[in-house]
Amino acid sequence: MRSAAIGLLMPGLFLAGCNMQDADMTGTSAKGQGRYAGIGTFGVDSLWEQMAGVAEPKDPAAARPADDTQIIVVIDSHSGEVRQCGNNSGYCVTMKPWGSPGAPNAAPVLLKKHASDLAAEAERNAEAAEPAAKDSAPSR
Fold first, then answer.
1. By the 8 A CB rule, do 49 and 88 touch?
2. Between residues 14 and 74, which one has the greater pLDDT?
3. Separation CA 130–CA 113 (nearest Å)
4. DSSP 3-state of 82
5. 39 assigned to some structural domain
6. Mean pLDDT of 88-113
7. Strands laid side by side in the 92-95 sheet
8. Would the pLDDT of 12 be above 60?
9. Mean pLDDT over all residues of the chain?
10. Is 107 domain-assigned?
11. Which candidate, 60, 54, 65, 56, places its Cα nearest to that of 88?
């Protein structure tokens, strides 16, 4: 009976120590992990400042999405939600496909102007600037 108890106890002690040894060797443990994990930082494109429904800050000195230069993307390790946040404004867009639809800052976001609208606008501006440049060139 005593040898059976020791036979069951010894493997349990060895297995319990495995997890501790692994944490000591790597310097990290699962308990030390934070809730949010970084995915990366990305440059802002012209559509970031075109988001509709962004509340204007009460303080006129506060940053707006147009002031952001980087987008910081993180994942919530508890819920799986992905957040894209501006580095200066702090405005975040969330993406959780299995979550409740219709959240004001959830993807897909509403836009004031779409990429095609901005491209057409840039093309019109370039065409308008072209004749002006030809008119101002000196003739030989």
1. no
2. 74
3. 24
4. strand
5. yes
6. 83
7. 36-43, 70-76, 82-86, 92-95
8. no
9. 79
10. yes
11. 65
Tokens read off for 45: 């494109």
- CA torsion angle for 36, 40, 45, 48 (degrees, to 10)? 0
What are the pLDDT digits (tens) for 18-71? 555 444 444 555 565 789 999 999 999 999 999 998 888 999 999 999 999 999
Predicted confidence at residue 115, as pLDDT, reads 93
- Quickly tell me which residue has 């230069």 as its tokens: 69
Q: Dump the DSSP string for 95-131.
A: E-TTS-TT-TTBSSPPBSS-HHHHHHHHHHHHHHHHH
Question: Cα angle at 113 between 110 and 114, to 5 degrees?
Answer: 80
pLDDT at position 17 over 60:
no
Residues 105 and 116 reside in one and the same domain: yes
Boundaries of domain holding 84: 35-132
118 and 55 within one domain: yes
